[in-house]
Every structure is written in structure tokens, then in C-alpha cells.
Amino acid sequence: MGDNGAPMEQGEHRKRNQGDDHVGGHHGQQDGDLGVRSTESAQPRGGGRRRGRRPGRAGGRRRSAWRGYSPEQLAARAAAVPAIVYPEELPVSARREEIAAAISEHQVVIVAGETGSGKTTQLPKICLELGRGVTGMIGHTQPRRIAARSVAERIASELGTSIGPGGVVGYQVRFTEEVGENTLVKLMTDGILLAEIQSDPQLRRYDTIIVDEAHERSLNIDFILGYLARLLPQRPDLKVIITSATIDSERFAEHFGREQTGDRGQPFTVPAPVIEVSGRTYPVEVRYRPLAPDDVDPASEGAGDSPTDGTTVPRPGPAGPGELSEAELEALTSPDPAVRAAARARREAIRSGAGPTALTPRNQGARGKGRGRAASAPAESGEPKDQVTGILDAVDELLGEPSGDILIFLAGERDIRDTEAALIDHLGARYTPDGRSRTPGAIEVVPLYSRLSAAEQHRVFEAHRVRRIVLATNVAETSLTVPGIRYVIDPGLARISRYSNRTKVQRLPIEPVSRASANQRAGRCGRVADGIAIRLYSQADFEARPEYTEPEILRTSLASVILQMAALGLGAVEDFPFLDAPDSRQVRSGLQLLTEIGAIEPAGAVSARSDDAPDRGRRGPRLTEIGRRLARLPIDPRLGRMLLEAGELGCVGEVMVIVAALSIQDVRERPADKQEASDALHRRFADSTSDFLTYLNLWRYLRTQSRELSGSAFRRMCRAEFLHYLRVREWQDVHTQLRQLARPLGLDAAPVELPTARSIRAATEALEPGSHAAQIANGGVAAAVVALGRSADTPDADAIHRSLLVGLLSNVGNWDERRREYAGARGTRFTIWPGSGLRRKTYDWVMTAELVETSRLFARTVAKVDSRWIEQVADRAGLTRHVFGEPYWSTRQGAAMVHEKVLLYGMTLVADRPATLASVGTDSARQVAREMFIRSGLVEGGWHARHGFVERNWELIEELQDVERRRREHGLLADDAALFDFYDDRVPEEVTSAAAFDAWWKEQRRATPDLLDFTRELLLPGGGDASGFPDTWVQGDLTLGLDYVFEPGHPEDGVSVQVPVEVLGRLSPEGFDWLVPGMRAELCVATIRALPKRVRRQLVPAPDVGAQVWAQIAQEFPTPPGASCPEVPFEEAFSRVVLRLKGVEITEADWAEAAERLPDHLAMGFAALDARGRVIGRGRDLVALQQRLSGKTEAAVRSVVRGALAQAMAEAQERQGAQGGKSGRKGRRKKDGRPAAAQRPGGAAGTAGVLGGSGAAAGSGAGLEERRGLTDWPRGVPGLGDPDASTIPASVESAGRAGLVVRGYPALVANGARSADLRILPDAAAQLGAHGAGVTALALARTALPAARVTSRWSAQESLILAASPYRTTEALVEDVQAAAARIVAGHWAASASGCALAEVRSREVFEALVGVMRDELEDEVYRVARYAAAALTAAREVERVVGEHTSLTLLSTLQEVREHAASLVPEGFITATPPEHLAHLERYLRALVMRVEKAASSPSAASHDAALAFQVSQAREVVDKARAKAASLPADPQREALLEEARWMVEELRVSLLAQTLGTSRKVSLQRITKLCAQIS
């Protein structure tokens, strides 16, 4: 695992068959065979040596009962017993007679001896000497495969016989069997023994069973012990020997005790005999070196005679309790309970008085030769040390001892890597990486853990020349003896496998080891000489730890145990004689898992414990058919369930490969020094959506390579590509075994499809040259297998994942974006293991083969899944929970719906799925569904019904609702309750949805088609009159629709005119203040109430006065025929009537206040509609709406005219074609479908636009086509008048929507100083304001002077002044000068007798007259304008100079105002921006600014006077601004704009008259005159 807290590399710490490095031995799952998770075949039918064999021809069926050996075979076996010799130096050899006597006299014997006492190798020899092993083999179990092989070799060596079928000693481990007919002693893993129980429940093949390392208390061992306890009464000839170095002897003795009856008839239990063998070949000294200074042993405090080197003198103690006298042995095995209790009490007293350093089988202290050390000195620095530092200090201490290898126990591979790096750095030059150095004092550091390759593991056991430091996990703690180890360093920590009942996850926390484990570790040293064990914790810590590690059955999932017990008929787990009964929560978790996968019936999931139950032994969960099939598969029940599901989905072969991969350690290796290289090679097979498919890709690759390569070449390839060859072979063997075992279950797995040679060649050629995949070996093969997995030639990946999902329902998770992790079952939260191919993905739902908790909870072997699959599988297993929300109406479904929430183990599979309310199934739900259908579907219309009565009813309702809206009265129509009762009386009870209604109405309408039709009497009981509320409004030649809305407070409340946008510009505000006739009475009353108080108090009561006023108005101001309102404004009519009736005068200010207070619905609204009838703008201010939509109005007008012109031209061409003899043929069209003539009419300058003119035929002159970029008068344009088509009409008309006349106004619109566009404008005002400027621009284009000619006549001073103008270039200045001059010349011509108004220039002849005048007068006018500009610029420079000379703070405001005003007078483009009549006065306006500054600076009082005068100017400017704001709210008017422009320049004259009187003004001016002028704007 890396520093980020991720779990170990794949294969390390795996729950399934993790190997030694998981937690080792008694800390967790062993690396032996499948055990209780297996039904693996045991003894072969015949002798012989089989390595990697298949499980036999029986194909997984149970073997026939054991028939025993024939007399000839018994004789041969008896003759094969070799001579037995015992090494005298072993403590067991000295006690062999006592052990042999106990075995002869008792069925069960417990032998407890120190590590290194010889019990493992000598006990089988003692049994052989007793004649055991002839009628049945001596079965000797070991927790690990490597231990079984090594022990078999050692026993065979001591007996002087070969190992295997030819000798008397054999062994059997997974896929390897070295057993013959004359095998007397069979070494095996405990899993093999459990597998044989399936075929030989009585274990007849054995007459003696030795359970070694029983202290580990793994699931296999506990199951064997419980099964043997139940079997022994049925097999009195069977001998059982339990042995271990750190065994709880009394606990085991009680478990295997014999029940007897005392003298008084009371039953009691006689425990099995216990023989404790003390002593070992070489003693071990234990030293305590705690990392924390506060953790120092109390025994070391105050010891004045303690040596200064940190060691203590050993204390003498009584003899070890293993040295039992005959009397003590008899007392401990006495049938009298009182005698046994007294003997145990004496034993406890001896233990407690022996002192902390006494040597016992539970605490291997310093006994040999009196060299033990009871405590350590305090840490020198007084500061706590980390583990690595403590290990380095301990290594330094042991390097000072006599030569010998050092074994250091560590919790995991990451700790090994960290410690290895620290040791290499610490040792410096003494470190040798390969162990071949001849340098004196050289030291080699060697790791040892399960993930190492076979070569790296074997290296540890090879002979070596230099001193070694072995860094090992607890793989080296029991059973396995690393040669040459003399010293041990024990940090006291290990990973302990613990199953969480809450999260259902196998956790791997690092915890302190028990005292038994610590003693086992200490016993690993001293095998070649006196040993030293250094513990990096205090003696007090050691003594405070639990004596034994908690049995695995109390901290793991029991699903496999329960399944196998049910298959063997062993009854309930609670009743099985386990040494330690499992926790009830774990039993429930196991039952829950089996129920989840459908292996047991739910009714048997809970079983109350009752020892007196008559059916004891037969109780327990009942297997389903799936469960019975699962029990025959030697794998985890979840994996077996995947296989069965794969059989249903047709992907057994692929799933079997994956299941086999999940049953073993990962074949991929990641050496610490080559992680990047290994990851790159492994990444070739990765699938971005599934780690399971990655296994399939890897399998295809391995099978393909094994097909193509020889055996040795294949092994070399595995080594080069970081694939563990032995695990690859194990994977294949497991797969073969599964195929054989699955065949009788009907699961015939077809071989997984492999790539062909052609596909491999194609994949190799497809690799990009130079890429990483092309450069590495076998890149083409890897690419071919990945491509094959994605092709259609292989089973669907979804089917594979759905098969796997059946066994992994508890291991699914949903991505939580907020917390950036997955939310799993029962509140768990996990993240994907960094080694997964999905580590960078965030799929919504994933499933994982296992969840492992280290620094956090990690998911390993992950795949993307569909939540629908999860729901289907969980529903089938009955595990989902459905929660329904509040009902709601669905228009689409036509039914009452609810939101359904589907939960699985607290996870939300479906958050908000709609379901019909009636499908909930309850009567109340169906009743509510019917009511909601009638109310929401039929009454409120929330249903897309296609029935005729629905349309008829809604048409009638809409018709009568319009009466309410127009009359603005609620309650005229019948309410929903009346309509509900109408339907409720007629619709049957069983109708709850649209589908049910359709089925009923299909038959009912044939008899009574009008059964559900509304009537006017039903909907409008009181009747209604809508007169006075017309549907249309007429203004001129426009007839516009009206829309009524009755929603007080809504912006659209009231009546609004529906105006097509193309006629919006032609509409005027006049008349709309009258509203419709039906609202005018209310308008009169509301107007009285809105008037100011001084007026309205004379018009009370308002309702009565309003009625009188309206009656008089209706009489005096009738509406003309065909019009929508009287001819005079409403304000005028109202004022005249009120004045005559009441003598009250209403002023303009009063009307302004009344307009603000009048209710919104009493002001006409306007809605602009586009061509599709959609509202594109709305408001009650018509002018503001016209201004806001002016661009869209112009575009709409042009669009209508364009369509009319295109149609007219097409019709003209059709007529022309018909006249030419081409009857029936359409006009020639371009690719875009428009007539050719419309695309490019000839004869006109500029480019043809896309818009057109009127709806008349093109040849009639009524059409008009727009042009862009004209530089001369248009000619030859379709739609222009005269023979040469050069006269621009004043207007063009087209037929718009609903018969409306759409009128356009052609005009020349200036597009720069010398070009113009022929465009159609939406109104006459726009035409009037634009056409003159366009005509002037075209005239200038014909007569413009070259820039060089203009500048050549400037004087040097003028050139300098004009060069400093705000214009960017001289050309721009000249262009602006000519434009201003052209405007002046054109203005003079228009005012002359021979000319006309520029807006009226519409023919070419008149335009040519203007061009002639401009050609004659333009040049002189240009020079005159240039002089005006130079004078203005000179004055502007003078303003800058004067402003710059004054820095007084009192003039700061004046100077700033002068500077800003000067800049506004002469900006860039000021020549054309200034009206021609005011251009000559610019110099005077600027010189007035100079004089103002000089006057204000003359004295302090002058500055105050200047401020007063400036205030008067600001008042005038404010008057003009208000007038401009008012004009903005009125329709466009050129005359109004001219008045505003005149008022703006009058302010300049006022400024001169007030601030520079000596300069004089061009006209009389005052604030009053300006105010009077602005008052004319209305």
C-alpha cells in the first residue's frame, strides 16, 4: 500500500485464500486449501504420484464409502514400517514413553510443547511405534501447504524413507498428491481433511489424526475439532492428537473430555489428558525495548543493581509447570471433579507465583542457561520512537551479538518496504543486495511475504554466505522455520481479519498480537544456537495483552460454514460443538447472505438455541435446490451462485474463469522495485468498465500464449511480464476442477473463445508504430484478446456482470458526488482501490468482489453495473423495500401517480420512479385514484383525452369563461364541485385511470353518446350578456383583435390589442384611452377616484357622479359608425362634461396624477405578435413598445413585402412563359428555390438585397427590390417607376395577415458619407428623416473632391491646426468636411426656387439637378467649412491653454466643467455633427469658455458670480433634457426633433449671453424663451 492509505497491491491481504501475508496463521484466513469452503476430493482411488491432477473421473461426485485395506495390503503396510530413531536432544524424545502411554490409553491427547521441542516430527513416529498407521493412515494436518511439504520431507528424512508413493510418508495439498498404497503418515492441509469429510464422513481412511498448530483456531481447525468431537464416540478406534506450542491445554482438554457418571449418579466430564513438554534445543532470551518511554516495565524501576547496558539479571523461578509428576497427572485426569478442581487451583498458584520471567508454554521467557532478561532500561532520550527507529536500534543491538540471521516481523508489505529502505540507508556500505559480497560484516536484507514470486520466496530458504536480515509478515510465525534464524525482532503488531456485522465487510485492521502469537514469534529464533527475541513493547504491555488470539470463527463470515454444515446434515450452527460458539450476530449475517443468494429457505434463517430439543442435530437451515447445488461447489457460496446464474444466462465459461480468479491470489505481480514496468504490462488487459473483464482478457492471453509457446518459454514469458507462474497454474487447475464439479450440476462450460492467428496478425499490424504497445513483447496478442472480448463473438458483457451481481448484492455502491466516494450497503462508504482499472472513473453504480478495510474501506475487483439489474436481482430475492410518496396527477398517464422509492440495504436503487396509485393495491389507494381521475382528469382537464365529449365540453366552457373575463365577474360559471358531482354520478366505481375509462366508455358511448356532455344550464345557471365587449378594434384601415384577461394583479389583466408587428409602426395612441364600451362606465368612476383630492372631493359620491358623467358622455360624444371610439380624446370629453355638470376644471397636471393612480386594467394594453402569432412584446405604452420593437417592425415589413414581390415576380414569369409557348412550365429557379429574376435584376448599381416590394406584379411597377451600397441613383430596379425604373415610390403596399394592409416606405438611407441603401422603412416618419440624408450621400458620391485637391489649398497655419484635430487621419477629416459641405449645398438647393425638399427627391431627373448644383458649389463650400473647423480648433486649443494655466482650487469645478464642455463641442466627427447653421458659431462658443475662465479667475467674488450664472445655464439644460425625455415617449416626429435641436443650441447662446456678453449672441435668448420653446413639444 502506498502512503495514501490505499490497500496493499492486489493479492496482498485478500480475504479469499490470502496466503500467509493476509494475517497469517491464527490471525486470519490460512493459505491452505479451501477447507470449509471446499468439497475438494481427498484420497485417490489408487496409489501413485499425481501432481496438479484433476479431481478424478467422478467429476465431483462423492466417492464410495471406504472399504478398508485387504489382508495383503495390511501385511504389506505393516512390513513397510521403518526402524524408528528419536533425536535425543529434542525434549519430546525424553517424554516419548509418557506420550505413547497417553495415546494408548486415551482417545484424545493434547500435547503442548515449546517451539523447537520436536513435537511436529516426533509425534507421528511415536504413533508408528505404537502400531498406528497400518489399518488406517496417520493423518497429520498443517495450516499451510509449504509447511505440509516441508514437514513431510523432514519426517521422511528422519525415517530414512523416500517421500511419496514409494515411501511410508506422503503429503497432499491442493492440486498435488504424493500418496501411495503403503503411505503410513500423510501430511496435508486442514482443508484437505475437511474436503474428505464429504466422501468419507467417518474418516475410515485414518486411524490417527494429528492436528498441528491448533492454537491458530482458524475456521478449518475449529470445524475439524468440532466434527471430531462429534465423530469420536462413533469411531472408538480413532486416535486424535492435538498439538501446539501455545495451546490453551485446559480448554482443549475440556472440549474433548469424556462424559461419565459419578458415585452419586451425577454426570461429569473427564477432560482429555494434557502433556506439556518443556524445554527446547536452544534457549531464547527475551528483551523488552519499548518504543515509548512511558511504557517501561515497572520491574526495571529502582533496580539499583541493574547493569548499565540496559539489560537485567534474570530472576530465578520455580520449575516450569510442564514438569508434571505422576500424582499431578492423575489428579488432573481424575474422574472426581473436586480432585480435578484442586489440581487446577494448585497449577494456577504455581503459575501466578512463578514471576514474570517464568518459562511456560504460554510465555517462552528466558530459561535456557539463565540468560533471560525480564525488563529493559528506559529509553535514553526519554522521547518516543517510531517503529522503524526502534527496529534500527534493535538491529544494532543484535549485530553486536554473535553471528546469526535476524528475523523481523512486520504487519504488511508497506511496512516491509519502509523498513527495507531504512535498513539499506542505515547499513550503508555493509549492505549487499545479492548476498554475494565477500566484504567482512556484509549484510543482506531479504523480504518474505506471500506476494513474492516463487524464486524470491525460495531465495529465503537457500544457503547463504553473508549475514541476513529477513523482513517477514506473519507467514514466518508458525509452521514455517526459516533456516539460520538466531534473533527475532517483534514490533508486536499484525493485521487481524475481522468481519463487521454492521457493514458486512471483512476488515483488516492492524492490532497488537496476543501473548501466544508473541511467544510463537520468539520461538522462531534459537534454532541453530542460543537465541534472542527483542520485543518493541514493554513487559507490562505483553502481560496486559489477551493470552490467545480470538478464534477466526468469532470474527469472520459464517456463510460457508453454515452451507457445508447444512449439506452434511450437521444441524444448526448453534448446536455444533465448536470449541468457541460463534457470535449470534455472525450466524445471522451468514444466514442472511445465504438467504440473499437463495441457498436456504428464509423460514430456517432463525433458530432458537435449545439443548433439550428432541430434534437436536437435525435442526438448522433447510437448503433450497440452489443451496444443494452450491454445496457441491468448492468455492465461496457467492461465487458458486454466480456460476449457477451464469448457467441461466449462457455465459458459464466466462464466469467460471472469473470465479476461479476470485478464488486464488492475483496472478499479477508488482515487485517493489519494478512497479511501473509491471503496471504498464498489466495495463494491456485492463477494461475501463470492469475489472472482471480484465481477468477474462488476461485468461485469454495466458491460454493463447500457452498454446503457442513451449512450457519453458511460457514460464519465461510469465516471469518477464510479472505474472506468477505457479498462481497461473493454480488458476488453471481451479478452473479445471470447477468444470469437472460443475458438469454434474448441468453447467457445461464451453471453452473461452481465443483469438485466431489471423486476428493476432491483424491486431499486431494495427498497432501504431513506435507506441508502447508495439514496442513491448506480445503486444499484438494482448491487443487481439482485448479486441476479442469486445467483439460480438463472445458472450455479452452484461450477461457476465448480471451473473456476478447475483452473488454481490451486498457489495454494490452508488457514487456520491458531494463526498466523492461510493455509498454502499448498510451505511458503508468506500472508494475504489487504486490498482483497479476503474480508479479514475465515477460510474453511477458499481459492484465489487470484496470490500477490504485498511486505512479506509476499499473496493477491489470492481465493475460498472446498471441499477435496473440490481433491482431485478434484489426483487427476485425479496430484499428490496418499496416506499411510496404523496399521490399526484399525471397528465401523460391519465392517472393518479405516486413516486416510488426502492431501497436495498439502505441504498436507494430508485429515487423517484412514478407508479400508478391504483397499483399500490389497497382499497383506499384505489378510491383516492378514482377521485383524482375525476377531479384532475375530467373536471380540470389534466388528461390528453381524444373523446368527443371532452372537446365539446371544453369548447362550451371556454365560450362561457370568456363571458366572465369580459364582464370581469367571478362566479358566473358552475364550480368544480358541481362538475365533479356530474361525473361522479355517471362514471362507474372501477374506473380509476384513463385506460380504465377508455375501456368503459368504448362500450357505454354506443348506448348513450351524450351521457357526459355539459349543458349551458349546467355551466351558466344565471345566464350572461357580453355586449359592450367587442372582439376587434378599428383604427383607420386596421382592424385588430382584442384579448380579455381577468386576473387582478396580473401584468396582462384587462383588455389588450393584438397587433401584428408589421403594422405596429402605423398604429397611433389616439382613441385607445376610451377602452371598450363595456368598461367605459367603470373608467369614469375610476377616473374620478384617481384625480387629486382637491378635485375628486367635488365629485362625490364617485359612483353616482361617474354614472352621470358616462351617461352625458355617451350622449354628447357618440362613436361614429365603423369606429371603435369617439373622435375626441377621452380626457377632453371627460373634462368638458365635468366642467358643465359640476363646474370643476381639470388641469393637465391633474390628468397626469390621475394617469399614475388609475388601475392598470383600465389602460389599454398592446401585444405585438410575430408571423406565427407569438407575443414578442407587450406593454401599455404604445410609443415605448414601438420604439422597443422598431427593428423587428422594420424586419417584419420587409419580410411581408419580400414575400409579395417574390410571388408577383414568379407569377409574371409564369405568364411570360405561357405566352412563349411553354404552357405548364414554371419559371426558371435557382438552387434556393427563388425565381432567377428575383435573384439578380439587372441595370442597377450596388448589390441586390434579399427583400422586395409590393404584392403587385413585377411588371406593373408596384414591386420594389431593396439594394445595398448604392453610389448613384438606382436604376433598373424592379418596382421603380418610369421606363428606366428610376423613380422611387412614396410607399408600397402588401396584403398581410387577416387581410391587413402592410405598407412600406421606400427611402434612401445613408450608409456612410458617399453611399446609401435603398430600403423599405416601416413608417412615414422614418422615411422623412432618412431619405434626405441618403440623397445627399449619393450626390456627394457623384461630386466628391479628391483629398489632395482639398488639402492643397489649405494654408500652412490651417494645415497645422487641422492636423491636430480629433480626427484620426487627414482623409477622415476631409471626408467629414465634404459631407458637411454637401449637406449645406443640398440645403441651399432645397430652399431655392429651383429645388425641392430633399425628402421629395424621388426621380432621377430631380436628383441630377441637385448633382449639377453640388458640382458647382461644393468646392467653395468645402473650403468655407474647413475655415470654420480651423477656427473652432484654434479656439479649442486656446481653451486648453487657459484651463492649464489656472490651478486654483476655487476654480476646480469651473475648470472641470469648461474642459468637459469644450470636449463635447469638438469631438471626432464634430463637423458633420454640428448643424450647418451653427458650425460658424463654434469658434464663438469656445471663446466664450476662455472668457468665462478669465473672468472667474479675476477675483474671488467673480468665481461666486460665475457659479450663479452657471446655475442658470444648468436650469436651461435641465428644461431641454426634460423635453427630450418627454419626446422619447411620443411617436417619432421630425418637427419635434427640430425643436429639440434648436433648444439645445439656444442653451449654447444662453451660455454666451451670461458668461461672455461681449461676444454677443446670434439671436435673442433667455431661460424663459427656452422654456417656452420646449413647451411646444407635445
Description:
There is one protein chain. It is elongated and about 155 Å long. The protein contains 54 helices and 40 strands. Helix 20 (652-662) packs across helix 24, helix 35 packs across helix 39 (1148-1157) and helix 43 (1324-1343) crosses helix 47. The strands form eight sheets. It has a nine-stranded mixed β-sheet, sandwiched between helices. A hairpin with a 4-residue loop joins strand 23 and strand 24 (829-832).
| Strand portion | 5-15%
Q: Could you tell me the radius of gyration in angstroms? A: 54 Å
Distance between the termini: 86 Å
Low-confidence runs of at least 5 consecutive residues: 1-63, 296-324, 351-381, 604-618, 1221-1262
What structural class do you assign from the helix and strand content?
A: alpha/beta
Count of DSSP H/I helices: 54
Count every beta strand, where a strand is a DSSP E run of 2 or more residues.
40
Q: What is the mean predicted local confidence, pLDDT?
A: 80
The largest pleated sheet is described as: 9 strands, mixed
What is the strand arrangement across the widest sheet?
A: 1-5-4-6-3-7-8-2-11
Overall helicity: 40-55%
Shape: elongated
Quickly list its features:
1578 residues; alpha/beta; nine-stranded mixed β-sheet
Write a concise synopsis of the structure shown.
With 1578 residues, the chain is an alpha/beta fold. The protein is built from 54 helices and 40 strands. α35 (1077-1090) crosses α39 (1148-1157), α51 (1482-1498) packs antiparallel against α52 (1500-1528) and α52 (1500-1528) runs antiparallel to α53.
